[in-house]
């Protein structure tokens, strides 16, 4: 059995390069912030689209 690896984030674990992991983190942050803005403004899915 191989020893378990530890990663700083799930993106570091699944990405092939540090640049890809950073891109995934940035996209995730953007989507979470966008969802929060939509929620706080009470927008419907149609309005958000």
Task: Provide a descriptive summary of the structure in words.
The protein has helices spanning 10-14, 18-40, 45-48. The chain has one domain. The mean pLDDT is 95. The chain is mainly alpha-helical.
Keywords:
49 residues, mainly alpha, elongated
Task: Indicate the topology.
Elements: H1 10-14, H2 18-40, H3 45-48
Computed CA radius of gyration, to the nearest angstrom: 16 Å
Unreliable parts: none
Counted by DSSP, the helix tally is 3
Number of strands: 0
Structural class: mainly alpha
Distance between the termini: 48 Å
Task: Classify the beta-strand content into a percent band.
Answer: under 5%
C-alpha geometry: elongated
Mean pLDDT: 95
Report the oligomer.
single chain
Please bin the fraction of helical residues: 55-70%
Order of helices and strands: HHH
Largest sheet, in brief, is: none
Indicate how many domains the architecture comprises: 1
